[in-house]
Amino acid sequence: MSVLVMKNVSVTLGGTSILDDVSLHVGQGEFVSILGPSGAGKSTIFRLLTGAVEHDSGQITCNGQPLTAKQQSFAFMPQRDALMPWRRIIDNLTLGLEVQGISREEARARVTPLLADFGLEDFARHYPAQLSGGMRQRAALLRTVVQDRPVLLLDEPFGALDALTRTQMQAWFEKRWRAARWTTLLVTHDVREAVALSDRIFVLSRRPAHVLTEVQVPGPRPRLGRRITPEAHALEAQVLDILLNQTGKAL
Ligand SMILES: Nc1ncnc2c1ncn2[C@@H]1O[C@H](COP(=O)(O)OP(=O)(O)OP(=O)(O)O)[C@@H](O)[C@H]1O
């Protein structure tokens, strides 16, 4: 059964058509990515799902229920880690839960057992500026995951990292995901990342965005580094061609 369904959704902002008849779905425990050219409207989909913008037409449901502003269906991780510099890591990690009305003690009790898995057990009392970029992203991810919502929305979570750290983080996250099977929707413009991490990929056109194609990613996991299969390589090339074609049209 699909947890998240967007059906024929269109969005206009300031008189400009941004999303045009977008349909996509994410199943329970599935990892789905949205790929598209820069400015296509990928982040707009997340703004829509988090209630920051409204759709003109179409339907959005979570677990079969129409999305409402009150419903807390999604745990959202923005592009930048958005950790508060004046709060210790432990207090940043509990923030999402505290906003939900959970006491600080209860929030800490939920976060603490996860610290080791996220490589943060020795850094709970540090401030964000004392952590590396990769560690901050792991903290932001932990803060998102611990909210225990039906769907994780990840907006280019590794985009700001250097290439080596990004590869390490992708491998680390993929391993965590295989163990936890969080229902995940990832926005990225990194074709390799989408192929390495996803079960399925929706490729968007340039703005106004519509779904150009939906691809099922073949082959066993993990698909990172030297383990990349010929099928995954071929898919990368195919998806890249589709995207370059879109960018070419935009130039
Ligand atoms: N309030 C607004 N009024 C008009 N246009 C807007 C508004 N907000 C966003 N846009 C436009 O919507 C388009 C889609 O933006 P969005 O951030 O969703 O794209 P994106 O695919 O996530 O881009 P990137 O990959 O570069 O992050 C952009 O061209 C942007 O200029």
From TrEMBL:
Protein name: ABC-type nitrate/sulfonate/bicarbonate transport system, ATPase component
Keyword Nucleotide-binding among UniProt keywords: yes
UniProt cross-references to CDD domains, sorted A to Z: ABC_NrtD_SsuB_transporters
GO MF annotation terms: ATP binding; ATP hydrolysis activity
Superkingdom assignment: Bacteria
A Pfam entry, by short name: ABC_tran
Keyword ATP-binding: yes
Family annotation (PROSITE patterns): ABC_TRANSPORTER_1, ABC_TRANSPORTER_2
Sequence ranges assigned to domain ABC transporter in this UniProt record: 4-231
InterPro entries: AAA+_ATPase, ABC_transporter-like_ATP-bd, ABC_transporter-like_CS, ABC_transporter_ATP-bind, P-loop_NTPase
Organism: Sulfitobacter delicatus
